[in-house]
Amino acid sequence: MQEIKKKKRAVALFVIVLICLCGWWAVRKEGFFLDEIYSYGLANSSYVPFLSWLHGGEQVANGKLPEAVFTQSEFLNYVAPQGSTRFDYASVYYNQTQDVHPPLFYFLLHTVCSLFPGSFTKWTGLGMNFVLLGGTLAALYALGMELFADWKKALFVCALYAFNREMISNVTMVRMYMLMTLLTILLALLVAKSLRRPSVPKYLLIGVTIYLGMMTQYFFVVYAFLLCAAYDLYLMFRREWKNAAAFSLPALAGVGGMPLTFPCWYAQLHSQDTVSLESTANNLLDLAQYPKGPLELIGWSIVGFAVGAGIMAVLTLTKLGQRWLPGKLRGTTLIPGDVKLITIPALAAFLVIAVISPYKSLRYVYHLQPLEALFCGCGLFSILDTLRAGTRKRILQIVCLAMVVLAFVIEPERMYSGTYKIDKELERYSQAACVDITGDLGSFTSGVQELLKFQEVCVVPDDSSELLVQYNTGENDTLVLFIGGRGLWQFVTAEQVEQITAQNMETAWNVARQGGYEDVSLLATQEFEQIFVLKK
Q1: Beta strand 456-460 pairing with 433-437
Q2: Domain Glycosyltransferase RgtA/B/C/D-like spans what residues (predicted)?
């Protein structure tokens, strides 16, 4: 009875701190990454996957933007479903046939957004992600209980995953990675249960989970393949041929179901230079870049998963020097076989994705982090179990305090602090003329949050456009000018930013002289664009 009360208090404390942490950073998220705008657009626009498809523009991915005057309603229709376009899953499916990702995440996001028609807000995406996080933690706890049969160890693994920068970066990014994380842990849980109690229903659920994961993000297949291969080898080593066949058939059916229900997957994987099977093969064959990708992601992961990285370092040193250690620790198995079968494929998948991914970004391996936490937590408890109860308790308290403090202090990725201040400034000019000089679809789309402040936006490729001459008559006392497409986000040095700013300022003065404006000021420099205010 006392143990049950202790467990309830611990779980309640964990949930309360987690809610505070998620709320703390959710409130502080002020802007959207470009891909997050695409999430809303592809999920909610009615058969218009990209803004470039409007006004007779090129109807291809990354198409050339038309010279046209876009209205506020066109931007809103792109990112938010309206009354007649709610729960229109045929449109979502069509939009994804034009993109580079499978549609499951977009179906889910469209469902949530359809409950709030005409509303474009971070809270629809974040609310959905928080629910997915809850499911992930429940599955991770069940996985810990399956492997450890100890609620304290299972809850610690959940805390190790939940209270760190990478998890918050994942849950506050409105993309498919939180859904992929949930499906990854469900797959690991089903395989772990099958280790002890194999059955056809579990194998069928594994096949369904693999199918859903494949319909979420293509990188899901890396861990799924390695885990299934490890489990198949385990069964064959034990000469359980019937179980091996009963497991393999649903797993293969799950993989095969994806191309049958989403046949454009092959075209997607050949549609772009950076996101394609060719680029993956090139990365795989380029031996010179093998150390670079994994080392970059490991370095970033050390910062994002600081406590876990510290535990991993302790485990590595312990393993290397175990034969010389005194007492019980010398003969202790740090990671039992069943935990290895579940987690080693995740560590291997981390390295594989680090090599083959088109961009070196932690978001491609977010889904593996709960399994990294499981590995680290298991090893840590193997060490702590050799110590006295008092020492073990103090170490755990220090570790838990460190992870919670760091989770609240280290800012996650993609918070875009300062965006609200820019938005308030732009609201003052909501009746002003607005021009967007953009060189590519990405920089234009990234500014949708700001462009929604205006009744209309004149979109042109450069300051010599005839449409700009017709629009920029100087009738308004103020003109807000967006200039993007010059790769600002790629430049990291102050000197390079100054060069781009100087070019953009020259363009801004050309537009000012054209419309009779006498004052030009730089309002903001953002990831893909700069915003200028021109006044009489």
Answers
A1: parallel
A2: 101-265
Residue-level pLDDT at 92: 97
pLDDT of residue 19: 97
Query: Do 130 and 14 have their domain in common?
Result: yes
Q: Are residues 91 and 197 in the same domain?
A: no
pLDDT at 277: 59
Strands 478-484 and 519-525 turn out to be unpaired
Could you tell me if 177 and 422 are in contact, meaning their C-beta atoms sit under 8 angstroms apart? no
Q: In 3-state terms, what secondary structure has residue 459?
A: strand
Nearest 10 degrees: Cα torsion 224, 226, 228, 234? -160
Nearest residue to 459 (alpha-carbon basis) of 480, 478, 434, 488 = 434
516 and 462 both lie in a single domain: yes
Residue-number span of the structural domain to which 428 is assigned:
419-535
Q: Using DSSP, state whether 533 is helix, strand or coil.
A: strand
Q: Is residue 339 part of a domain?
A: yes
CA atoms within 13 A on the CB side of 61: 18
Average pLDDT over residues 155-164: 97
Residues 109 and 168 in one domain: no
Q: What is the reported pTM?
A: 0.94
> In terms of domains, do 361 and 423 share one?
no
> Is residue 414 in some structural domain?
no
Question: pLDDT confidence of 423, banded at 50, 70, 90?
Answer: very high
CB atoms within 10 A of CB 359: 8
